[in-house]
Specification:
With about 80 residues, this protein is mainly α. The chain has helices spanning about 5-35, 40-50, 60-70.
Amino acid sequence: MTTDPSEYEKAMPIVAAHLAKIERAVDRTRASHAGHPYATVHQALVRALQDEDAQRVVPQVIDELARQISEDPIKPPA
């Protein structure tokens, strides 16, 4: 089964827009909650993702981002 390359081209703007929403939510959460307790960061990140209309994020990704923001407020993840 081969995927039509035009399908990829059609999907990429949608994917890029969704990733931009996630990035804005993470950046905003990092700026306001870096170094705070994990539970506080997690709740703020979930709220920021909702505000950006980017709720469709794998829960483990949210957990890991919240952990990184909570534990290492100075250095953003690679």
